[in-house]
Amino acid sequence: MAGGGGGQVPSSMLVGKVTCGAWIRRRDGGAAASRLLVLYGRAAAASSPPLLDLLAFDASKSALASEEPLLRVVMGEDGADAPRAIAVHPGGDEFVCATAKGCRLFKLVYEEFSINLISRDCPPLQSVGPQRCLAFSTDGAKFAIGGEDGRLRIFQWPSLTVLLDEPKAHKSFRDMDISLDSEFLVSTSTDGSARIWKLDGGAPLVNLTRSADEKIECCCFSRDGTKPFLFCTLVKGKDNVTMVLDITNWKRIGYKRLLAKPISTLSVSLDGKYLALGSHDGDCCVVDVKTMQVSHLSKKIHLGSPISSIEFCPTERVVISTSHQWGAEITKLNVPADWKVWQIWLVLLSFFGASAILFYTFFKYTTLL
Predict the structure, then answer these.
(1) Per-residue pLDDT tens digits for 206-256
(2) Is the distance from CB of 160 to CB of 136 less than 8 angstroms?
(3) Domain range spanning residue 40?
(4) Residue 31: inside a domain, yes or no?
(5) Count of structural domains within the chain
(6) Is residue 76 part of a domain?
(7) Residues 6+ apart with CB under 8 A from 112
(8) Domain's final residue, options 96, 128, 160
(9) Residues whose CB is less than 8 angstroms from the CB of residue 161 and which lie 6 or more positions away in sequence, other chains included
(10) Before 49, cis peptide (omega within 30)?
(11) Per residue in 272-303, is it b (16+ CB within 10 Å) or e — as a string?
């Protein structure tokens, strides 16, 4: 059962395509903590306005528990109100949704048998215009947006105190990410340039070097907590490669051709083990970061349409990918399964049991002098 903070649309009505998607997981205690949710933004259709859909996810089946949403909320009356991007706060209780007009803040209220979605007034975000990039810091204390107009804004969260407002950060934003330690922000421009920003100081730190025939496009930081890397896709003439930089000095460590075609989006799993690349013709590959080898490849998952976003599930080896033509796809990755906690304990208990049997056998059948 769910309630909402906006107009309701009958679930049977023909709705628009998914324009963006995100995972929601709560980090605090309670029954809802183990529950994964999927949030879809939908464009307007002939018979329905722009929408937000909240759906339950069944981890055991690696699929939506039902195509029927738990909650469906109207975003507005015209196409400019359609969701373009979603950033979920690490706490899982609120998220920001970007539209052509600006950004809207929503709060999720979890009750024993229901979920309510409440739209909150947020003047600093509501009239900022179309934004290409949204990102919360890992600690949830900062929020950054990068606009089509090239303007970068960094806010303290939740007070929304402005830490940086740089109108000419880029020609127009292409991509953006915040480092695991919430210290740095990387941003790329549609002209191929890339900059590093100090998040606390709210100031530019360095411009990433590139040659005249190079364009830096997508970017994301490593997430495993041990290797301080920055991953960027690089167009070098007619070649498309993924390069790795050391964030202690912002120097290139090397680069590799992982998906030999133009890359449209780049993402990393929350545990930092896998890197996902989406192409302009709808292919998706997932790379083992430790070996930098392709572990999973899905061809034409979006049937020739550029993949606009890929987001890893917080707890399972599953991704949501979106494209403007085909909407959203949920894909279970063909990668080695992670060890569960109970499996580790079972192995340890097996070792203890085997050791006890060996000791018993030794002392029973050995004559002590």
Answers:
(1) 999 999 999 999 999 999 887 789 999 999 988 999 999 999 999 999 999
(2) no
(3) 1-128
(4) yes
(5) 2
(6) yes
(7) none
(8) 128
(9) 155
(10) no
(11) bbbbbbbbbbbbbbbbebeeeeebbebeebbe
What percent of the chain is modeled with pLDDT above 90?
77
One-letter amino acid at 262 equals P
Which is more confidently placed, 28 or 73?
A: 73
Section 42-49 average pLDDT:
92
Q: What residue has token string 């989406």?
A: 278
Q: Which of 328, 323, 322, 338 is nearest to 288 (CA)?
A: 338
Q: What is the pLDDT of residue 107?
A: 96
52, burial (CB in 10 Å: exposed 0-12, middle 13-18, buried 19+): buried
**Which segments of the chain does DSSP mark as H helices, in order?**
123-126, 341-365
Strand spans (E) along 208-326: 214-221, 229-236, 239-246, 251-256, 263-268, 274-279, 284-288, 293-298, 307-312, 318-323
Q: Tell me whether strands 115-120 and 142-147 are parallel, antiparallel or unpaired.
A: unpaired
pTM: 0.87
Strand order in the sheet with 229-236: 214-221, 229-236, 239-246, 251-256
> Please, what is the average pLDDT of the chain?
88
- What confidence tens digit (pLDDT) does each residue in 124-140 have? 999 999 999 999 999 99
* Domain-located, residue 254: no
Report yes or no on 281 lying in a domain. Answer: no
Q: 88 pLDDT exceeds 80?
A: yes
CA distance 272 to 291: 13
Q: What integer pLDDT is reported at residue 167 of this predicted model? A: 96
Both tokens assigned to 55: 């759906």
